[in-house]
Structure formats: structure tokens, C-alpha cells
Design goal:
Length: 254
């Protein structure tokens, strides 16, 4: 595991975690304890978005639950939903909350003059709306209830109020492509993302492929515009190996 450090104008030290996908991450807790972050931000995809074998998805996702508990025991931890969290039922969200992390689900909180927000991935909002129109309560769908080519939009309605908040504004936003589509012109100081897995296979500074960006993606890691920080993620769940692309935990500080 690689430790990436970025010096930005942030009024605290933040650890950025993304894309663990219910996998164990050797060395992660040791890194967190050694580097003493003030805040831990988990920017989505702590699970794999497939149906559970039995029971609740978060009951089955034991590595994800343990990650959340251990992070919350170290320091204040904020969690926002990524695309793989699309199928989570209300009961799963209750399990996440019980670990001690604070969930930012198209919402924000203020801590010591810093405003932390979380923009949930569009697939989550889409499935919530789908559930509302079902005659019977269904915990989980058999598959994502939309054509493969359909691209839902995230819920942006709350962001205008978030922009108006006093203080330094930090947004957890799992999918970095949302920055160029929706967020670039907004009054937000720092945006924390993941999702791209570093481009999976890196040739020099270029990645080969990223979800929702396709071949030779541009938003796969590092810092853009001194305010978008993209984690390369902390797991590999693809059949394609990560090549020249180690998993990483990111630290951001002033």
C-alpha cells in the first residue's frame, strides 16, 4: 500500500479512503494510527454492489463493517455513498450508522469551522426513487432496475445551500467525473473522490481504463485544479490486475 501526501490549503489533516470493496487492506490501520489524521473521509464503495447470499448486505460485508468501526475509533469519520452502495436497504444504512461513522448522504455537517458534505452517487438516488414506486417493499432488486445505457443524475438540489455555508467547504464525491460535469463552477474548496481505481493499468502517467470514463481516462488520481483529490483506491476486485498502480491511502493537509 502506498501513502500519498498532498499539501493543500486545508485547515486540518485529512485521510482519504475509497474503494475498499469489502476487501481487507493490510497496513491501513497502522498507517492511520501513525499519521494521526484529524478527520477520516471515506468516499464510497466500501462494499461490492451484488446481492447478498442471505440476510442483509451489511451483515455479510464483514470487512466493510470492521473498517468503519476501526476508523471511527481512531477519529471523527465521515462516509458518503458510492455507486456500489446503490442497493443498500434502510436496514443496511442503520448498520453503517451503528459503527460510529457519520453518514453524509446529500447532506452536510459543520465541525470546527469546516463544513463537510457528501454527494451520493446517482445510482443510489435512482434506486431509492424506484423503491418508492413499488407496491411491495423489496429489500434488494435482482439487478439494477434500468437499461444498461441509462445514466442517472445525482441529486444536486442541496448543493446550492451547501455552497452558501460559512467556513471551509469539503465535499466527499465518489465519482470524479461529477467534478467536470456538475461541480467545477461551484463554491467548494475541496472535493474528495475515488472510483477510477487509478486507471487499473498505468502506462507512464496514463491509465488504461476507468468506470464511467472509459479508455484512457483523465481523472484517475492525484490533484486537479488544486481542489479535486482523487484516490486510486484500496483494493482490486477486477479480473484485470492492477499494473504499475499500487493501492493507496491519501493524506491531505495544509
Amino acid at each position: 500500500m502506498k501513502e500519498a501526501f498532498y499539501n493543500l490549503n486545508v485547515p486540518c489533516r485529512i485521510a482519504l479512503i475509497a474503494d475498499t470493496h469489502n476487501q481487507p487492506v493490510p497496513g491501513l490501520m497502522e498507517s492511520l494510527k501513525n499519521n494521526h489524521p484529524d478527520i477520516i473521509c471515506i468516499a464510497g464503495d466500501i462494499i461490492q454492489g451484488y446481492l447478498p447470499k442471505s440476510g442483509l448486505k451489511m451483515q455479510e460485508s464483514t470487512n466493510a463493517k470492521e473498517l468503519l468501526k476501526q476508523c471511527a475509533a481512531i477519529t471523527t469519520t465521515y462516509f458518503s455513498f458510492g455507486n456500489h452502495e446503490w442497493l443498500l436497504a434502510d436496514e443496511d444504512v442503520e448498520i453503517i450508522a451503528s459503527t460510529g461513522v457519520e453518514i453524509l448522504d446529500n447532506s452536510w455537517v459543520e465541525k470546527d469551522g469546516v463544513v463537510f458534505g457528501g454527494l451520493s452517487s446517482a445510482s443510489l438516488a435512482f434506486y431509492r426513487n424506484y423503491r418508492k414506486h413499488q407496491k411491495e417493499k423489496v429489500l434488494y432488486p435482482g439487478k439494477f432496475p434500468a437499461p444498461r445505457a441509462f445514466v442517472p443524475m445525482p441529486d444536486l438540489s442541496w448543493l446550492s445551500d451547501f455552497e452558501k455555508q460559512d467556513g471551509y467547504k469539503i465535499l466527499l464525491c465518489h465519482q470524479p467525473e461529477y467534478y467536470t460535469k456538475y461541480l467545477k463552477g461551484m463554491n467548494i474548496d475541496l472535493i474528495l473522490s475515488g472510483h477510477a481505481h487509478g486507471g487499473q493499468i498505468r502506462i507512464g502517467n496514463r491509465g488504461l481504463y476507468a468506470p464511467d470514463q472509459g479508455m484512457f481516462p483523465k481523472l484517475i488520481g492525484g490533484v486537479l485544479d488544486d481542489r479535486l483529490v482523487i484516490s486510486r483506491g484500496l483494493s482490486n476486485v477486477s479480473r484485470i490486475p492492477r499494473i504499475n498502480n499500487p493501492v493507496e491511502i491519501v493524506y491531505i493537509e495544509k
